[in-house]
Amino acid sequence: MFRRLRWIFFGLCDELAHNLLPSQQICDVPPKRVLVTGGTSGIGEATCRRLGANAIVGGRNMTRAREIASEIGASCVRVDLSSPAAAVASARRARAFHPDVLVNNAAVMGKSRSETMRVNVVATAAFTRALGAPVVVNVGSSSHLRAQRFTDPKLLADDTKDDLRAYAASKLCLMHYSQLLREEGVCVRDCHPGIVWTPMLKEYLRYPNLVEATGLRRLLFKHPAAAATSLLTAAFLPNNLTGYVVHNRLQPPTSLRISPAVHDPKAIAWTKENILKEIYTT
Ligand SMILES: NC(=O)c1ccc[n+]([C@@H]2O[C@H](COP(=O)([O-])OP(=O)(O)OC[C@H]3O[C@@H](n4cnc5c(N)ncnc54)[C@H](OP(=O)(O)O)[C@@H]3O)[C@@H](O)[C@H]2O)c1
Question: What pTM does this model have?
Answer without folding.
Answer: 0.95
